[in-house]
């Protein structure tokens, strides 16, 4: 099974880096990228990814609000969302997981942890990378 992934981050270099890491895997396909939460919602509807890598702080609509909208759409099988952020904040973790995120990952994590998080989310498992503290 190929895991279809959407990358939502306002930083172009992060999107490109994630796309290169995921695109090198035989079992993953990046189906689109978005630079903000509004575009992420549009891309979810258009491409129906299995997993969305979602940044928290983005213009127009932040990742946590986009996450809630993805899970509130009434879709039969909404994509799993792994929140990826630079902010190691317990409130963000709490809001993300309570909002329906399948995982939470810091951008300082290794590419191996990124891949593990995507695969775990695709298998419908809740996942969180070890904290750096």
State the helicity in percent bands.
Answer: 40-55%
Structural class computed from helices and strand pairing: alpha/beta
CATH topology of the domain at 7-81 and 122-133: Rossmann fold
Poorly predicted residue ranges: none
Strand fraction: 15-25%
Tally of alpha and pi helices: 5
Cα(first) to Cα(last) distance is: 35 Å
The overall pLDDT average reads 89
Shape: globular
Q: What would CATH call the homologous superfamily of the domain at 7-81 and 122-133?
A: Response regulator
Which CATH architecture of the domain at 7-81 and 122-133? 3-Layer(aba) Sandwich
Strand order of the largest sheet: 2-1-3-4-5-6
* Quantity of strands, as a count: 6
- What string gives the helices and strands in order? EHEHEHEHEHE
Radius of gyration: 13 Å
CATH class assignment of the domain at 7-81 and 122-133: Alpha Beta
Q: Tell me the major beta sheet.
A: 6 strands, parallel
InterPro entries: CheY-like_superfamily, NreC/VraR/RcsB-like_REC, Sig_transdc_resp-reg_receiver, WalR-like
Organism: Saccharopolyspora gregorii
Protein name: Response regulatory domain-containing protein
Keywords: DNA-binding, Phosphoprotein, Transcription, Transcription regulation
Topology:
Layout: E1 3-8, H1 12-23, E2 28-34, H2 37-47, E3 51-54, H3 63-72, E4 80-85, H4 90-98, E5 103-106, H5 111-122, E6 127-128
Parallel strand pairs: 1-2, 1-3, 3-4, 4-5, 5-6
Structure report:
This protein is α/β, with parallel strands linked by helices. The chain has a domain at 7-81 and 122-133: Rossmann fold, CATH 3.40.50. Helix content is 41%, strand content 22%. The protein has five helices and six strands; from the N terminus they run βαβαβαβαβαβ. A six-stranded parallel β-sheet has the order 2-1-3-4-5-6, sandwiched between helices. Strand 5 (103-106), helix 5 and strand 6 (127-128) form a beta-alpha-beta unit. The protein starts with a strand and ends in a 5-residue tail after the last strand. Residues 4-122 form the Response regulatory domain.
């Amino acid at each position: 099974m190929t895991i279809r992934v959407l990358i939502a981050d306002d930083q172009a270099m992060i999107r490109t880096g994630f796309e290169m890491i995921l695109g090198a895997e035989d079992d993953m396909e990046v189906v689109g990228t978005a630079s903000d939460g509004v575009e992420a919602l549009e891309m979810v509807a258009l491409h129906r990814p299995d997993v969305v890598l979602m940044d928290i702080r983005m213009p127009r609509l932040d990742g946590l609000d986009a996450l809630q909208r993805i899970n509130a759409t009434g879709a039969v099988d909404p994509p799993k969302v792994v929140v990826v952020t630079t902010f190691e904040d317990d409130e963000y973790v709490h809001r993300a997981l309570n909002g329906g995120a399948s995982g939470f990952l810091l951008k300082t994590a290794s590419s191996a942890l990124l891949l593990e998080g995507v695969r775990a989310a695709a298998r419908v498992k809740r996942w969180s990378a070890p904290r750096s503290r």
